[in-house]
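Apologies for my clumsy wording, but could you write out the amino acids of a protein and the tokens describing how it folds?
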Amino acid sequence: MSATPQKNRVARRMLAATAGLVTVGALVAAMPATAQSHVADKDKGHSASSGNPYKKTKPKKARTVDVQLLSFNDLHGNLEPPAGSAGAVNETQPDGTVKSIPAGGMEYLATSLRTARKGHPYSITAAGGDMVGASPLLSGLFHDEPTIEALNKVKLDVTAVGNHEFDEGAVELARLQNGGCHPTAGCFEKGKKFKGADFPYLAANVTSEKTGKPILKPYTVWKKNGVKIGFIGVTLEGTPNIVTAEGVKGLKFHNEIATVNKYANELDKQGVKSIVALIHEGGAPASTSYNYDCDSPGAGDGISGPIVNIAKGISAKVDALVTGHTHQAYACTIPDPSGNPRLVTSASAFGKLYTDTTLTYDLKTHDIVRTSVKSANHIVSREQPKAADMTSLIERWNKLAAPIANTPQGYISADINGRGATTPESPLGDLIADAQLDGMSAADKGGAQIAFMNPGGIRSDLVYKASGTEGDGVVTYGEAFTVQPFTNMMNAVTLTGAQVITALQQQVSGANEASPKILQISKGLTYTLDMTKTGAARVITDSVKLNGTAINPTASYRVAMNEFLAGGGDGFAVLGQGTNKLVGASDLDMFNAYLKTNSSPATPLAPPAADRITILK
């Protein structure tokens, strides 16, 4: 149900001058009763309760005002419209069919937010983290300064940190907040110094190991005309498991529930009774359609995942939760610990949606009237006018990036889906794993026999249709960067066959059992995954083969992977046990080298079949 804020229309009236009231009052008092009644009738509706017919009263102040909360999450530096299926939103039609609608792009998001704010004197714009990091080249090449500049222009009021805000470490995050030129790349535009974010980044549950204090502000309070709303921002406690060790060095990440409750109590003691938690952790609705009703058949019945238990544990003092991380769309009602309904929202990712929530604020209690909270997600349509200032910003940064971004790297014959794939094994995942194996298979490069690629590291699709003037089927450096923006260094390590099998089992067990993370594998490695079973038993051990020969548990194998996986990231602890490590080129360099060597205009790469993993359901 779309938010429909009430509009309080209270007429303001001028009080009569004191002298005038005394004079008229004396005249009326001298009149006969019938005359007094006649005068009062003429001014009916203006007389005060005291009986003085000409005394004008100050209108009674409305008890509540509606505060508009606009929110989004997981922008990931997508200033331009995301390409391919990653730039589409699913919408369920009245007849039950699902329509894919192109959406997103900062030019359109800015227009959507500015249009939505019209007519709302109390409007706040907040975000649920991952505004930057894993960004396309237009932002990533410049360490995400363009995205911070765009968010300043769109007047973002506050955001939580997400795990990707730590991709380049706490020092770089502080620079994004406070400004200053990059310590090694310097200033990107002559005569201009990066000024940092105009909005606060909140990191309530991220503390320094040395000081024990939050590395950034834990909360902020938005104020206007007596209205006060507190915002607490946290990222997921498991951030160290999904960020490189260097990115979280010297930091501690604390429990989301305990942290939010701690600061909710602190805000409450300060008299801030209306509180919103910005949480970079999310859930999975039963449908991928943005307009799916996740409160059907009952409140919160249509959503699962970590955010459900988090929402149930967060203090009833918090009135709403803006979430993220899972890149899903929902506006659900999950009961708080007191059993009262409470809104939990997420707006997909890449600026494709925004959430419009109405918070009815009680001016007497200073709290949100929970039963009046309404919310809905809205598509950031590409059929609306572009925001001129965003177009100018994008053109300016594109001009700086063009010499690198437009360089051809290879050729493809059709779309090769990665992020937009609908199967656990993706064609682009296979292509990337093959590129890594190819780059590290030579004896002096690592002697790799197998390559593993983490699925979360594949950030987009390779799209056949030209994005600029390069021509259809041409893969540019910018497009390759968008697919693999982390520039992780490649590692080759020695693992036993038993450890290789354990790695496959860790995809669907332990930390990954509830939400499997299926590694993308290089050619030659095959196995069967039986999803009708549970935990590690889902991997059929004797089906794991390399070039048709069963993996020998006691034999040694050389395995290529990026440094994130080699550090045990994404719950793959066994991959962190590799020995005899050799460090190679970056994942992006290897990918580009593979494209150049294995494709040409006459012989473009076709999408891999993605048939290395047999999945039983």
Summary: Residues 217 and 464 are 44 Å apart (CA to CA). The longest strand covers residues 353-362. The mean pLDDT is 91.
